[in-house]
Specification:
about 150 residues; alpha+beta; 6-stranded antiparallel β-barrel; about 20% helix; Pyridox_Oxase_N; oxidoreductase; Split_barrel_FMN-bd
Length: about 150
Amino acid sequence: MQAPNTKGRTTAERAQDVRERLGSERDVWVATSHPELGPHQVPLWFLWHAEAVWMCTGASSATARNVRAEPRVRLALPDSYDVGLLQGEAELHPAGEVPGQAGDAFAGKFGWDPRTEEGPFVYLRVVPRTVRAWHGEAELRGRVVMREGVWLG
């Protein structure tokens, strides 16, 4: 566990740190919600590609069903001290229709290519509209590092 940063980072430093984590992390928690069935949260592998988060799941999964009904999602990087929360709207791309560069990059990162699987898979693409980042209590103020799709700082 990292020692708390009592000084705090600037908005630009936080934004840069989140972008670095998006390029290096493997998992992200995906929160979706169905209008009648309520919230659902699951960890998925993800790829940061062309300023978007790309994930893949079964075409009939609760995540995919929820996104079809309500595309607004929240993504959380897996660290309760080094918090990174992203909000946006998910777009679904059937595995056979995912843009080639994104599909190739996903397969290259994970050694698994959903496009070659028998079962139906969909890719979720989320372009963040809002990003929040903070380290503990000292950085709660000023935690928004992206607003309306524009990185701050």
